[in-house]
Write a structure and sequence with these properties.
By secondary structure, the chain is an alpha+beta fold. Among the domains are: 82 residues, Immunoglobulin-like (Sandwich); 112 residues, OmpA-like domain (60s Ribosomal Protein L30, Chain: A, 2-Layer Sandwich). 15% of the residues lie in helices and 32% in strands. It is built from 5 helices and 33 strands. β2 and β3 form a beta hairpin. The longest helix has 21 residues. InterPro entries: Bact_OuterMem_StrucFunc, OmpA-like, OmpA-like_sf, WD40.
């Protein structure tokens, strides 16, 4: 990550501190109450203010409800008394407005609720969209975000005016600590790409919440409790650089005119661009109240100043101390080695001090694929346990093997973990262990040893297991010589296992020559299938 000159950052902070202090932000008295109000969102026509209210008895889930959407309409004297937005767009979980289409006829919502009980209001369900018909909001439909995974009870989001870019606040595969910010893009088939982290200039070990992407598609406001702040949580601003969604300017605190010792969150600038809304717990009537303030000429001048400072910041880059790490997206699956069908398994991946747990039984797809965003080159330890299968352990290096974005698996190749059934008599072919013609020497030692290392690891993970190695040839030639050749080949495999520390008493061996073909020997392909080494679990 590039270090920036400190005097420039101080200059930015000074601009925000001085100019933000003169802003006059006003509490929206007709909307605020003794309950918790947050997440304001103004409709594109400027006539309806939506927000989330928690703890109110009128919420779908009553006083224990985490929050329903309420609204207030604009009148000649200000904002009307707030009303509950109804049960169509609210459910017992946390609800909130993410944003709108430019014409105001589509409203994007936090979360998705399935009335049949499949959704349940869990923050794992992502984002939904409701369409206005005859002036009424219709039942929300969930956005199909590829490999969406949120391991937090919190979810936040913002959508741009073009409705093709989502920024999500959640805890997922590559989170730095708690909730981080991710970006997802709308695809040609109306699905959304797998969320990618915004990187560690924006994301921290703490909590990054309530993103808001401004109309320029470059300026991002968000709340954090880990960047340099004035209180519990403050609002910060950053700009993306070089057209990238992983390259951002150093986040800057909006200053004392906005942020306090309390919690400030949910910054929102409506389509008109002349006002900003946010929520704060400082000096409020309850948990959180809504405020707004005019984006005056001073504030707009400040934005221009930020642009100038960012340009200087780029010119003043210090020598690179730590190269940015690249992120690769890898898709995995866990299969039965015999049948190549998906297995319900508990998968733990560990790298760089992080542990990531996945239960494939929870994956709602037929093929049970799951996606990980990993730092390229990271050494990743994987441990897999499944009922009825031997424990699996492996260490691999995260690498980029990305295919085209039209690929079936969303742009990444599939890495497969094969599990061996934990049953005496189970027979498994050892793939890619091939020999030179009429020889017991590996034709490709590097590939063969890599394959056999997996068996070594399996035996280390399952110390009570013993196997019998069985060698086979095709049937072309003298039967006695073929049997001797199969014995020599299987001994080569056994010797390698023993050289890696496997106890000799755990590895029996036998050669069968061409006595047990899997198919006919009339073709080259058939003979290749019959030339094989297998192992059988004997205890």
């Amino acid at each position: 990550m590039l270090n920036r000159c400190s005097f420039i950052l101080i200059g930015v902070l000074f601009l925000f501190s001085v100019k933000a202090q003169v802003q006059s932000h006003l509490k929206i008295d007709s909307v605020n109450s003794s309950y918790d109000e947050h997440s304001p969102a103004l409709s594109p026509d400027g006539e309806t203010l939506y927000f989330t209210r928690s703890g109110h008895a009128a919420n779908v889930g009553g006083v224990i409800d985490r929050g329903d959407i309420w609204f207030s309409t604009k009148t000649e004297s200000g904002w009307s008394k707030a009303q509950h937005a109804g049960n169509v767009i609210n459910h017992p979980g946390l609800n909130g407005v993410v944003g709108f289409s430019a014409d105001g006829n589509r409203m994007y919502l936090l979360n998705y609720f399935d009335a049949d009980g499949q959704g349940g209001g869990s923050m794992r369900n992502g984002i939904a969209v409701s369409t206005k018909l005859n002036g009424e909001w219709q039942k929300p439909e969930r956005l199909q975000i590829q490999y969406f995974s949120n391991n937090s009870p919190y979810l936040g989001a913002t959508i741009n005016a073009e409705e093709n870019t989502l920024i999500l606040a959640m805890r997922s595969y590559l989170s730095e600590g708690n909730e981080d910010l991710y970006v997802s893009f709308k695809q040609g088939d109306d699905t959304w790409s797998q969320p990618q982290t915004l990187g560690n200039v924006v994301n921290t070990y703490g909590e990054e919440w309530s993103p808001f992407l401004a109309a320029d598609n470059e300026t991002l406001y968000f709340t954090s409790n880990a960047h340099d702040g004035l209180g519990g949580r403050d609002i910060f601003v950053t700009k993306r650089l070089n057209g990238s969604w992983q390259d951002w300017s150093t986040p800057v605190n909006l200053g004392e005119g906005i942020n306090t010792k309390g919690t400030e969150r949910d910054y929102f600038i409506p389509a008109s661009g002349d006002v900003a809304f946010f929520s704060t717990t400082q000096n409020s009537e309850g948990f959180g109240d809504l405020f707004n303030y005019a984006l005056s000429d001073a504030e707009k001048a400040l934005q221009e100043s930020i642009e100038e400072v960012l340009a200087q910041e780029e010119e003043a880059e210090m020598p690179i101390e730590n190269e940015k790490t690249s992120v690769v997206v890898m898709t995995f699956q866990v299969l039965d080695k015999r049948t190549e069908t998906p297995v319900d398994a508990s998968v733990k991946m560990s790298y760089d001090g992080k542990d990531i747990d996945i239960n494939t039984a929870d994956i709602d797809s037929q093929n049970k694929h799951f996606v990980m965003s990993l730092e390229e080159g990271a050494s990743v330890e994987v441990s897999i346990a499944a009922k009825g299968f031997l424990k699996y352990q492996e260490t691999f290096t995260a690498g980029s093997s990305v295919q085209s974005m039209s690929d079936e698996f969303g742009g990444s190749s599939v890495e497969t973990f094969y599990l061996t059934p934990e049953e005496v008599g189970t027979k498994v072919k050892i793939e890619n262990v091939l020999f030179n013609r009429a020889s017991a020497n590996f034709s490709n030692p590097e590939v063969a040893k890599r394959q056999l290392d997996e068996i070594v690891q399996m035996m280390e993970s399952n110390p009570g297991m013993a196997i019998r190695l069985e060698g086979h040839t095709d049937n072309r030639g003298d039967a006695r010589l073929l049997k001797e050749l199969s014995v020599e080949r299987v001994k080569t495999v056994r010797d390698y296992l023993l050289s890696k520390g496997v106890d000799a008493e755990r590895v029996e061996f036998e050669g069968f020559g061409g006595e047990k073909p899997l198919t006919d020997n009339d073709s080259a392909s058939g003979r290749e299938i019959n030339r094989r080494v297998e192992f059988v679990i004997i205890r």
